[in-house]
Structures are given as structure tokens and as C-alpha cells.
């Protein structure tokens, strides 16, 4: 009887270790920062706060253009969000320290700072995990987010399942938000040219 109990406990512990290993692999930071250069379309996101989820749900569609900074580990980012039907544009700068990236967003005449990392993902995907500290009524709150971007605006079921598993490993709920991926804001330059023509 005790031999069976030992075998059962050993099997259970090996399953737990295998499960932990899967999560370790799924949330491993990407070491290839150059992979993120180019244009990305926001595909799916989740937050651990109701306020941030409400904001995410106001984003009809979003894209970002990322450029690596020569001779530096930083990135420059330009983005266009369609929020409640209107296009809003912003920029961000980042600095990398080890596996962590500090990003300062400049948006609506204010700046916001988040800390995050790029996770391993499919070849045409970028998975970004971040957190933001805010002061509310004298208390510091931490908000966590997880986003998936694609190069094409399309995501197959297999890669979506991997993202969901990453979210589970990071202890997010299953209340994912899927914005539109086709009705994107034009580049800001194109938008300015159209306004000049009118």
C-alpha cells in the first residue's frame, strides 16, 4: 500500500514539475529584441484591473510601429489607436535593463510609465507583459497587462491557445478583449495629408 502511495505521489509531483516547466517556457522573456522592429497590430489583450479592461474595450483598433535604436538597447515606438471611433496618436521611448524594459508613453499631453518584457511567441507575433504603478488616494496600486500583437492582423487558433496558456501561467482571468484588426487608423502623416486636401 505504501509503495502505491509513493508511486502516486511521485507521479503527481512529476506532473506538477512538468506543468511548472511548461509555464517557465511559456513566460520566458524573448532575448531577440530586434524581432520587434516593424509594424504590429493589436490582436488581443487582458488586464487584471476592471479600470484597465474598460479602457481596453474602448480601443476599437490599434497599431504600433517599433524601431530599434542604433547602438542602444532602447526602442522607439509610434502608435495609432482608434478609440470610440476617433484616431489618437502617440509615441513612446524605452530603455532595456536585463530582461526588463521601461517604456514611457506620451499620449494625450501626458506621460505614462510601464515596466514590462517581451515574451517568446510565434514568429509573426509579439507578446508583451507589463505592469504599471499608480497612486490612488495615497495608495500605490499595481496594474498588470498582457497583449498580443501580430504583423498581419490575423491569428490562428493554435497561437491564440498558446497566448491563453501564457495568460493562465501569469494568473490572468479569461476575460480577453479582441479589438478590430481591420479598421485601423491611417499613419499620422497620411491623416495629415488627407486633412490638408480637404
Q: Write out the CATH superfamily name.
A: Calycin beta-barrel core domain
What fraction strand? 35-45%
Spatial ordering of strands, largest sheet: 1-2-3-4-5-6-7-8
Rg from Cα:
20 Å
The biggest beta sheet is recorded as:
8 strands, antiparallel, barrel
Q: Do you know the CATH topology?
A: Lipocalin
Categorize the overall geometry.
Answer: globular
End-to-end C-alpha gap: 84 Å
Structural class based on helices, strands and sheet pairing = alpha+beta
CATH C-level: Mainly Beta
CATH architecture: Beta Barrel
| DSSP, total strands | 8
Q: What order do the helices and strands follow? A: HEHEEEEEEEHH
Number of helices: 4
The level of helicity is: 25-40%
Total tally of structural domains? 1
List keywords for this structure.
4 helices, Lipocalin, glycoprotein, 198 residues, signal, secreted, Apolipoprotein M, 8-stranded antiparallel beta barrel, Calycin, 8 strands, alpha+beta
Characterization of the model:
The chain is of the alpha+beta class. The chain has a single domain (25-184), classed as Lipocalin (Beta Barrel). Helix content is 29%, strand content 42%. It has four helices and eight strands, in the order αβαβββββββαα. Strands 1-2-3-4-5-6-7-8 form an eight-stranded antiparallel β-barrel. A hairpin with a 2-residue loop joins strand 7 and strand 8 (139-150). The longest helix is centred in the first third of the chain and has 25 residues, at 2-26. The termini are far apart. The model is unreliable at 1-21 and 192-198 (pLDDT under 50).
Amino acid at each position: 500500500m505504501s509503495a502505491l502511495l509513493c508511486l502516486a505521489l511521485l507521479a503527481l509531483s512529476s506532473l506538477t514539475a512538468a506543468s511548472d516547466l511548461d509555464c517557465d517556457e511559456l513566460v520566458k522573456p524573448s532575448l531577440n529584441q530586434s524581432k520587434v522592429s516593424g509594424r504590429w497590430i493589436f490582436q488581443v489583450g487582458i488586464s487584471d484591473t476592471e479600470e484597465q479592461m474598460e479602457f481596453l474595450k474602448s480601443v476599437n483598433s490599434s497599431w504600433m510601429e517599433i524601431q530599434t535604436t542604433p547602438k542602444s538597447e532602447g526602442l522607439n515606438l509610434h502608435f495609432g489607436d482608434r478609440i470610440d471611433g476617433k484616431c489618437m496618436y502617440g509615441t513612446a521611448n524605452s530603455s532595456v535593463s536585463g530582461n526588463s524594459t521601461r517604456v514611457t508613453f506620451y499620449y494625450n499631453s501626458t506621460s505614462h510609465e510601464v515596466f514590462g518584457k517581451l515574451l517568446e511567441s510565434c514568429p509573426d507575433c509579439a507578446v508583451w507583459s507589463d505592469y504599471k504603478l499608480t497612486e490612488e488616494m495615497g495608495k500605490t496600486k499595481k496594474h498588470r497587462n498582457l497583449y498580443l500583437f501580430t504583423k498581419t492582423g490575423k491569428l490562428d487558433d493554435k497561437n491564440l491557445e498558446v497566448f491563453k496558456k501564457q495568460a493562465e501561467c501569469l494568473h490572468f482571468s479569461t476575460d480577453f478583449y479582441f479589438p478590430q484588426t481591420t479598421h485601423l487608423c491611417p499613419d499620422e502623416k497620411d491623416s495629415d495629408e488627407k486633412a490638408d486636401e480637404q
